Amino acid sequence: MACRCVAICVCISIIAVIVMFSLLKQQLSFNKYDDTESNLFSQHQNWPFNEKTISWVMDFYLTLQRKVASHFSTIDLAVVACGADDRVQETLVNLKSVVLFSKRFVNFHVFTEENLKMKFRNSLDLWPYSAKSKFHYTLYSIKYPDDGHAKEWKKLFKLCASQRLFLPQLLKDINSIVYVDTDVLFLSPIDDLWKFFKDFNSTHLAAMAPESEATNVAWYSRFARHPYYGQTGLNSGIMLMDMKRVREAKFKNDLVGESLTWAEMLLPLYKKYRQNITWGDQDLLNIVFHHNPELLLTFPCKWNYRPDHCIYMQMCKTAEKGVKLLHGCRRAFHKDKWPVFKAVYTAVKDFRFDSDISTLIRDVKKELDKVNETNCKKSSYVMVDGLQKTISLKDEL
User: CA-to-CA distance for 176 and 169, rounded, in angstroms?
Assistant: First the structure.
């Protein structure tokens, strides 16, 4: 009976807010995206409600939407951002690409430095309500174990990137999560990536894409001075983790004569191989899954499409039907050396939430037209096709 009463109250509240919100919406185009909320209100001087009331109603409506969404199936995504302001912007474009195409509610777990937190708040809180209704974000401080090596962990490779190794211990209430580097763009719904959890068998606890598709050009098969997964190694820029299984598992290793937990294994693994690892935490993950291959599911390269896949020729066969996730490693979204990746990133960055999503294809093509002919330019159709398929499906909904 109590549950039924709560449900009725929620329904009544939702109906009341919707009615009130519909009335307000006739006078307020709240989907419009402006640089400041003051711009939004300055255009409407004759409202029957004052600015404070409008803001309160919107916040209440948004909070209610999020609470309702949290009772249904949600997706958790983690990202780690440290360094200069450009890393904040890159992360915001990353999150924006998720919001543009996601079907389900997404919880963003953003790990960052203290001086960057306000920059994230100031930006995310000014996104339009149409976007904010699709996600919730939490900002976390960078935190490493009290093992005397925190400074080394932080600078292991890209600043703070190794934080991902400690997510199972830091997010103890989260069972499954998608981790992405800041330099990742979703060209498809994150929901589709999340579906790989359904492909996990009884032993899988993580999923990643191969580092390369060919052993003769793979970095790991040519240069690695440590064990690595399979024939070409793994790229950890996009990683699915069943963190409940990670916390409970025992891992085979070349450290001691017995299996160790994830938390027990990381520091001794780092101590043993720190002179031999080039790519930091990614190398440590390769070592772990070299000894425990049965714990890993690999997904196709179209879910982690990088400059290496097109620099000489089209190396990712599964991308022929469209790229799903674009990974701009090596600062590809910002350097003129990788103009195709930079062009797609620029189009997403400049896209306004209040624009018709179909215009994003036009904007991408417009940016690509500025790019000189290169091997990646010849293969750029795989990015356009992936985005086109996503937008076509979105328009059908």
Answer: 13
The pTM (predicted TM-score) of the whole model is 0.85
Residue by residue, DSSP assigns 235-254 as EEEEEEEEHHHHHH--B--S
Q: Is the dihedral of CA 66, 71, 72, 74 positive or negative?
A: positive
Q: Of all helices (H) and strands (E), which one includes residue 79?
A: strand 74-81
Cβ(327)–Cβ(183) below 8 Å:
yes
Rounded CA-CA distance 208/236 in Å is 6
Q: Structure tokens of 318?
A: 């599964």
| Closest to 77 in 3D by CA, of 239, 196, 204, 199 | 239
* CA separation for the pair 156, 145 (Å, rounded): 14
Q: Is residue 106 within 8 Å of 186, Cβ to Cβ?
A: no
Calculate the dihedral angle through the C-alpha atoms of 382, 371, 158, 93, rounding to the nearest 10 degrees: -70
Token pair, residue 18, equals 């919707």
Residues 6+ apart with CB under 8 A from 120: 81, 88, 91, 92, 110, 112, 137, 139
- CA–CA distance, 92 with 343 (Å, rounded to integer): 17
Beta bridge partners of residue 111, listed in sequence order: 80, 140
Answer yes or no: is pLDDT of 317 > 80.
yes
Confidence of residue 133 (pLDDT cuts 50, 70, 90): very high
Average pLDDT over residues 301-320: 95
Per-residue pLDDT of 323-359, as tens digits, reads 999 999 999 999 999 999 999 999 999 999 999 999 9
Owner of token pair 């039924």 = 4
CA dist., res. 3 & res. 255, Å (int): 53
CA distance to 13, 15, 59, 276, 277, per residue, from 10 (Å): 5, 9, 16, 57, 54
**Exposed, middle or buried, 222 (CB in 10 Å: 0-12/13-18/19+)?**
exposed
Number of H helices, E strands in the chain: 17, 9
Using CA atoms, how far apart are residues 192 and 198, in angstroms rounded to an integer? 11
The SS3 assignment for 147 reads coil
Q: What are the structure tokens assigned to 290, written together?
A: 């070299």
Three-state DSSP at 71 gives: coil
CA nearest 156: which of 57, 276, 239? 276
